[in-house]
Write a structure and sequence with these properties.
Structural class: mainly alpha
Distance between the termini: 52 Å
Oligomer: single chain
Length: about 180
């Protein structure tokens, strides 16, 4: 039996293209689908802007700068999720906004505390850590790691709050602006 035919063997009314168009029109009325498309388009726009400016950026900075950036990012991107102990992910879950605000405060306090502990550790053991991890290329930038940790945690907290309050346009705009 042909997929376009109905159960009784008769051809389905309208073409499959018309049914697809109608499903898309109905889907665009769906708030969930619009919100998903908003976030996806913001992320895609951000990626397109990054790709468009990549030739310019690679002309300005040499391969050494990219190596230092890559090493620095590999260290910091391992530490950013630890900065707030992944509590920001739970911000969208509570039924009451008061509980979610409590998670925001807890996440921010943890991010400040862990960034301060990281700064203290770097101050006391930075040279030894650089030697053991064999990342001497980022030694001048070590004290930026706690700042990046806190900033990354704060960004995650703000992003989760925006998801909770369903402000997806702001999230997309921030992705493009970033």
């Amino acid at each position: 039996m042909n997929v376009i035919e109905q159960q009784d063997g008769q051809p389905a009314s309208g073409s499959s293209m018309e049914r697809l168009k109608e499903a898309l029109r109905g889907g665009m009325r769906s708030k969930l689908l619009r919100n998903i498309l908003t976030v996806v388009s913001g992320t895609a726009g951000a990626q397109a802007i990054t790709m468009a400016f990549m030739p310019v950026i690679t002309r300005i900075y040499g391969p050494e700068a990219y190596g230092v950036l890559g090493t620095f990012l590999s260290v910091t991107l391992m530490l950013v999720p630890i900065a707030a102990l992944t509590y920001p992910i739970a911000i969208v879950l509570p039924k009451r906004d008061g509980d979610a605000r409590g998670l925001v405060r807890l996440s921010l306090m943890l991010a400040v505390l862990l960034a301060a502990l990281t700064a203290l550790s770097i101050h006391l053991f930075g040279g030894w850590l650089v030697e053991k991890a064999d990342v001497a290329v980022i030694e001048p930038y070590l004290m930026l790691i706690p700042l990046v940790m806190f900033s990354g945690a704060a960004l995650e907290i703000a992003q989760q709050w925006l998801y909770r309050t369903q402000q997806f346009r702001i999230t997309a705009s921030v992705a493009v602006g970033n």
